[in-house]
Amino acid sequence: LGAGLVQLAHLHTSPNSQAPVPALPEKGGKTRHGIIPEELFQILYPKTGVTGPYVLGAGLLTYILSKEIYIINHETFAAACMGTVIIYGVRKFGPDVAAFADKLNEEKVQKAQEVKDLAMTSLAQAIQDEKKEQWRAEGRQMLFDAKRNNVAMLLETNRRERVHMVTNDVKKRLDYQIALQTLHRRMEQEHMVNWVEKNVVTSITPQQEKASIAKCITDLKVLAKVQQAKTTA
Amino acid sequence: MTLSFFDQFMSPTYLGIPLIAVALTLPWILFPTPSARWLNNRLITLQGWFINRFTQQLLLPLNLGGHKWAALLTSLMLFLITLNMLGLLPYTFTPTTQLSLNMGLAVPLWLATVIIGMRNQPTAALGHLLPEGTPVPLIPVLIIIETISLFIRPALGVRLTANLTAGHQLIATAAFVLLPMMPTVAILTSIVLFLLTLLEIAVAMIQAYVFVLLLSLYLQENV
Q1: Is B189 left (phi over 0), alpha (psi -120 to 50) or beta?
Q2: Which pLDDT score is estimated for B1?
Q3: What sections of the protein cross the membrane (chain B)?
Q4: How far apart are CA A52 and CA A46, in angstroms?
Q5: What is the rounded CA–CA span in Å between residue B61 and residue B110?
Q6: Mutual angle of helices B183-222 and B70-87, in 10-degree steps
Q7: CB–CB contacts below 8 A, A to B
Q8: Of A100-104, A164-168, B19-23, B124-128, the least confident
Q9: Do the Cβ atoms of B216 and B58 come closer than 8 Å?
Q10: Helix count (H) and strand count (E) of chain B?
């Protein structure tokens, strides 16, 4: 059992570390005429030049046909037809299919990129907002001063109100005293006038009354005479 | 000469090894394994896209019980389409031209749908034998007809075999008579051969699809 445990501990371990995963090549291997790898041409170039691989191909073909290693039979024609169709299909629709596959990958990347961009913009916005808040916080002294001014003004207003109130109250009391004094004086004056009048009326003796009435009658007669003279004239 | 025309469909053996086993399993290397990467090369991307779309479309009419068959149906579709398309290349052997293979695929799968239907919902499964709205006098005849139609469903396999065999045979015959022909007449035969090639490509894909589609239809009825 111990040996088995040792083996179990060595599962899924290897000395090669594949992390991070090696990157894939961007493009596939280069080919000439779609089928033949470019490396063949590079290998043969030093010895046989540019036409080397073509001569090799033609020679191989001729050899195979002439030695009847490959016999031309009905399958050759079927192969020619099928080959034409396949090559036509690949040449015509190949780029579209490749573009489609690339588009699928692009969309995948774009979705992730959108998420990342959204996160970035929201974080940048958060930074902006934070900076603004810090700037706002700097102005808090002004805020405190304004508030302090407000409070002082309120207190001042209150104090002045109270002063006015006190002034009014005191004035009211003084007015009351004045009114009281004037009332007193008026009453005294009225009383004195009444007393004088009463005394005067009681002091008028009957003979003085008669004399004054006689004077009034003579005055009236004179006035009547004057009036008569004025109307006749 | 008839025997030589059908020679292309003889199951090939080499030194006693049935090469059909190789023909059945080797196309698997054409499909790259989906890698652990997030962004893949074009082949894996297209393969993944195709498999996803196909499975989604196939499972649309099926309810949840039928979704268990998703892996089976999609892999069957890929299998058949690969075998058919590869068989169009010259000097290749198409395993799906063998009746034994196609019946071996069709009969067990069809029987599975029937047994599932009979086991889980026998009333509904038997109810499929009588379509709705049939006039009363026709009922006995119709039940017999529907039962026959039920048991003929393994013709799924026969359909595939027949279509592919016929297509390959036509191409072989047209190419064979093209060989010793005069050039002027040969042009017409070449056109025929070219059109047959196009047809065969279409048929190869369509027949695989029809196989899987009908199977999913039988499943939909019974699951």
Answers
A1: alpha
A2: 46
A3: 12-32, 69-89, 98-118, 132-152, 165-185, 197-219
A4: 10
A5: 18
A6: 170
A7: 66
A8: B124-128
A9: yes
A10: 9, 2
Do B43 and B49 meet the contact criterion of CB atoms below 8 Å apart? Answer: no
For residue B159 the two structure tokens come to 């359909």
B99: nearest Cα among B12, B180, B158, B14: B158
Q: Does A82 touch chain B (CB under 8 A)?
A: yes
> What number of H helices and E strands is found in chain A?
6, 2
Alpha-carbon gap, residue B54 to A136, rounded angstroms? 59
Residue A24 with chain B: CB contacts under 8 Å? 37, 41
| Nearest CA-CA distance, residue B171 and chain A, Å | 7
Residue B64, both tokens: 């949840």
The C-alpha atoms of residue A8 and residue A2 are separated, in whole angstroms, by: 10
Nearest CA in chain A to B50: A101
Question: Residue B88: which of B159, B223, B193, B222 has the closest Cα?
Answer: B193
Q: Model ipTM?
A: 0.84
The pair of structure tokens assigned to A125 is 């916005």
Collapse the DSSP code of A204 into the 3-class scheme (helix H, G, I; strand E, B; otherwise coil) and give the result.
coil
DSSP state, B69? G
- Which has more confidence, B1 or B12? B12
Angle in degrees, 0-180, between the axes of helices B42-59 and A74-138, rounded to the nearest 10 = 90
Residues of B in contact with A113 (CB under 8 A): none
Q: Mean pLDDT in each 10-residue stretch from start to end of chain A (233 residues)?
A: 70 69 78 89 93 94 95 89 92 94 94 96 97 90 92 97 97 96 96 94 83 92 93 84
Yes or no, beta carbons of A100 and B46 under 8 Å apart: yes
